[in-house]
Automatic annotation (TrEMBL):
<dbReference type="GO" id="GO:0051287">
    <property type="term" value="F:NAD binding"/>
</dbReference>
<dbReference type="InterPro" id="IPR045626">
    <property type="entry name" value="PGDH_ASB_dom"/>
</dbReference>
<dbReference type="InterPro" id="IPR029009">
    <property type="entry name" value="ASB_dom_sf"/>
</dbReference>
<dbReference type="InterPro" id="IPR002912">
    <property type="entry name" value="ACT_dom"/>
</dbReference>
<keyword id="KW-0520">NAD</keyword>
<comment type="similarity">
    <text>Belongs to the D-isomer specific 2-hydroxyacid dehydrogenase family.</text>
</comment>
<dbReference type="InterPro" id="IPR050857">
    <property type="entry name" value="D-2-hydroxyacid_DH"/>
</dbReference>
<dbReference type="Pfam" id="PF19304">
    <property type="entry name" value="PGDH_inter"/>
</dbReference>
<dbReference type="Pfam" id="PF02826">
    <property type="entry name" value="2-Hacid_dh_C"/>
</dbReference>
<dbReference type="InterPro" id="IPR006236">
    <property type="entry name" value="PGDH"/>
</dbReference>
<protein>
    <recommendedName>
        <fullName>D-3-phosphoglycerate dehydrogenase</fullName>
        <ecNumber>1.1.1.95</ecNumber>
    </recommendedName>
</protein>
<dbReference type="InterPro" id="IPR029753">
    <property type="entry name" value="D-isomer_DH_CS"/>
</dbReference>
<dbReference type="InterPro" id="IPR036291">
    <property type="entry name" value="NAD(P)-bd_dom_sf"/>
</dbReference>
<dbReference type="GO" id="GO:0006564">
    <property type="term" value="P:L-serine biosynthetic process"/>
</dbReference>
<keyword id="KW-0560">Oxidoreductase</keyword>
<dbReference type="InterPro" id="IPR006140">
    <property type="entry name" value="D-isomer_DH_NAD-bd"/>
</dbReference>
<dbReference type="InterPro" id="IPR045865">
    <property type="entry name" value="ACT-like_dom_sf"/>
</dbReference>
Length: 537
């Protein structure tokens, strides 16, 4: 493995990657030519905020599997281009949670006790004690918008100050809020009742401009606002107006829409504290970010575990261990069906039944699609990261259905139906004993067969002598049968009544032998179709 660390990282970060046998780490100071040249044979790229990992750069990185961003924002990475290339983009949210929470509380205390002005007047030789009368945080209501890792760290510290905590986050479980003594309220109620308001959400279409003229108008007069999240959460003109009118008693801003901040109306307002995006800038936080990212990159390259990905839902190590056999099975099932659709593929329907339906299924879905495309033109560029995006580019619709509970039988089943211009084909599979992928049905016919190795899928008329003829022909070509599964049509469906299916797992002595054996099978009058499927061990 080759990892390019395009910007400076801590020694501890580098050590995690360097200790892996056979891994080569190219640090920023060792990049002799251009970064593009260095990425030609790289498996991973680690950046901070300076390097622009844009579409043009990624064109020079055919082997790249993962881009790691040491920090939260990924504005310097073209995630859409990375997804098209099948590259995971990871960041490190939460590694600096304590640092951001501590600055948030520090800014609140600074506003409550006018610490910056006290320091300035003292340095100017002025003993201005009377005008520096402050207020306590104790008993005040703190409204927290966003109860992720940072928001909860703020809550824990604010609780020690004796503050009353309320929060708004539609994506947090009530039990988590209760455990941290935070009362969940609507966003309007939070605005109306907060003495202090702190923002800890990402930038989305829903959160952009959250603090605006209308929201400020319903806030408690004299509210104090802290923003250590994203500058775009606040409409600057509205906040300036609120600060001037006294509707907003004070603000502490660490982030801004345009950075660095220049020619800002905030400069002339005495009731605003400004800092240059330093919330996460502590020695401890930067070390934690680097170590976390190195472990994420290592675990993805070694184990396939996707953590904190911005272009794919993430799995914890424990979640990955549970779902990994189904991801592998899903790709094999997709590959098994890849050439079975009778016409141009239009729609892929994926159904999850049982335990797998309750978990994160995005990687299972993508594995199915990657398996279907594996033998197509350009199939080598389709993987479990970009599969859904490529399907969309090709105009193929993806439909997913989930049913968590079953009345009995196999615990978790995956069913895939390929809808084409001239007909459909389907198959279902499961994983037995945690490691063994098994085919359960094919075109509506129950047929249990191993979903690995070299398989011959045969459709035949349900008449005597076919099974014997198949065995004879394979034996004549020195091909050993490892498993022979049979199923027959008993109801109306894609396979007419009177037809049967056989899935034969074989040991292939040579490609030539397999080719001649298949040609001989196709000549048998009772056999309607024969397919060879290579699924690997």
């Amino acid at each position: 493995m080759k990892i390019v660390l395009a910007e400076k990282v801590s020694p501890a970060t580098l050590a995690i990657l360097q200790t892996e046998p056979g891994w080569s780490c190219i640090t920023a100071d060792k990049i002799k030519g251009s970064l593009a040249e260095e990425l030609k044979d790289a498996d991973a790229l680690i950046v901070r905020s300076a390097v622009q990992a844009d579409a043009a750069l990624l064109e020079h990185a055919p082997k790249l599997r993962v881009i790691g961003r040491a920090g939260v924002g990924v504005d310097n990475i073209d995630t859409a281009a990375a997804t098209r290339h099948g590259i995971v983009v990871m960041n490190t949210p939460g590694a600096n949670a304590v640092a951001v929470a501590e600055l948030t509380l520090g800014l609140m205390v600074s506003m409550a006790r006018s610490i910056p002005r006290a320091n300035t007047t003292m340095h100017a030789g002025t003993w201005d004690k009377k005008s520096l009368q402050g207020s306590e945080l104790r008993g005040k209501t703190l409204g927290i918008v966003g109860l992720g890792r940072i928001g909860l760290e703020v809550a824990r510290r604010a609780r020690a100050f004796g503050m009353h905590l309320i929060g708004y986050d539609p994506f947090v479980a009530p039990v988590i809020a209760r455990e941290n003594d935070v009362a969940l309220v609507s966003i309007d109620e939070l605005f109306r009742t907060s003495d202090y308001l702190t923002l800890h959400v990402g930038l989305t279409t829903q959160t952009e401009g959250l603090i605006n003229k209308n929201s400020i108008a319903i806030m408690k007069k004299g509210i104090r606002i802290v923003n250590c999240a994203r500058g775009e959460l606040i409409v600057d003109e509205a906040l300036v107006e609120g600060l001037k009118s006294g509707q907003v008693g004070g603000a502490a801003l660490d982030v801004f829409t345009q950075e660095p901040l220049k020619n800002s109306p905030y400069f002339d307002l005495p009731n605003v504290l400004l800092s240059p995006h330093i919330a996460g800038a502590t020695d401890e936080a930067q070390e934690a970010i680097g170590i976390q990212l190195a472990m994420q990159v290592r675990d993805y390259l070694k184990l396939g575990v996707v953590q904190n990905a911005v272009n794919l839902p993430s799995l914890s190590h424990e979640e990955y261990i549970e779902v990994a056999p189904y991801i592998e099975m899903a790709e094999r099932l997709g590959h098994f069906l890849s050439h079975a659709a009778p016409g141009n593929l239009e729609n892929i329907q994926i159904s999850y039944t049982g335990r797998i339906a309750a978990g994160k299924t995005d990687l299972i879905r993508n594995a199915v699609i990657a398996g279907i495309f594996a033998d197509t033109e350009g199939g080598n560029s389709v993987n479990r990261i970009n599969a859904a995006a490529i399907a969309e580019e090709r105009g193929i619709r993806i439909q997913e259905d989930k049913k968590e509970f079953t009345s009995g039988g196999v615990g978790s089943v995956l069913k895939v139906v390929l809808h084409s211009s001239t007909g459909d084909t389907s198959a279902s599979a499961t994983v037995l004993h945690g490691t063994s992928p098994r085919l359960l049905s094919y075109d509506g016919i129950d047929i249990e067969a191993p979903l690995h190795g070299t398989l011959v899928a045969i459709r035949n008329h349900d008449v005597p002598g076919v099974v014997g003829r198949i065995g004879t022909i394979l034996g004549e070509h020195q091909i050993n049968i490892a498993n022979f599964a049979l199923g027959r049509s008993t109801r109306a469906g894609r396979v007419p009544q009177g037809q049967a299916l056989a899935v034969v797992q074989i040991d292939v002595p040579s490609p030539a032998a397999a080719g001649t054996a298949l040609a001989a099978l196709k000549k048998v009058e009772a056999i309607a179709s024969v397919r060879l499927v290579e699924l690997g061990s």
